[in-house]
Amino acid sequence: METLLKIKNVGVDYDLDDDIIGAINNVSLDIHENEFVCILGPSGCGKSTLLKAIAGFLIPNEGEILMNGKKIEGPDQSRGVVFQETNLFPWFDVKKNVTMGPRLAHKSEEEINLICDKFLEQVELEEYKDSKVFELSGGQKQRVAIARTLANNPQVILMDEPFGALDSFTRKKMQTMIRTLWEKNNSTIFFVTHDIDEALLLGTKIYVMRRGEQSIVKDYDIDYTNRLLLNPKEHVVDEKIFIKLKEEILSLLEE
Ligand SMILES: Nc1ncnc2c1ncn2[C@@H]1O[C@H](COP(=O)(O)OP(=O)(O)OP(=O)(O)O)[C@@H](O)[C@H]1O
Question: Which of 15, 19, 21, 83 to mutate to test the pocket of ligand 1 (most atoms within 8 A of CB)?
Answer without folding.
Answer: 21
